[in-house]
Design brief:
Layout lengths: L2 E9 L4 H9 L4 E6 L6 E7 L2 H12 L5 E8 L4
């Protein structure tokens, strides 16, 4: 069963729109939402393993120009 998570992102300055466009094109990202509040974007992601999840967040999403900070919430199956 794939792992699912929500990635809450803070972006810098006027980079929200370009970060949004870039993140939506990353494989494993299912949806991206611009939001109000302390975060600028929330992405719903899916990965097959923790290693893949780590790569997706730490390298691909955090490597997007304008993404300054992330907070990851892994979805539990009850």
């Amino acid at each position: 069963m794939p792992l699912e998570a929500f990635i809450l992102m803070e972006t810098s300055g006027n980079h929200t729109k370009t970060a949004y466009k870039t993140v939506t094109r990353i494989p494993g990202v299912k949806a991206v939402y611009p939001v109000t509040g302390p975060y600028d974007l929330i992405a719903q992601i899916e990965a097959n393993t923790m290693e893949e999840l780590n790569e997706l967040v730490m390298t691909r999403i955090r490597g997007v120009d304008g993404v300054m900070k992330t907070n990851t919430a892994i979805v539990f199956n009850l």
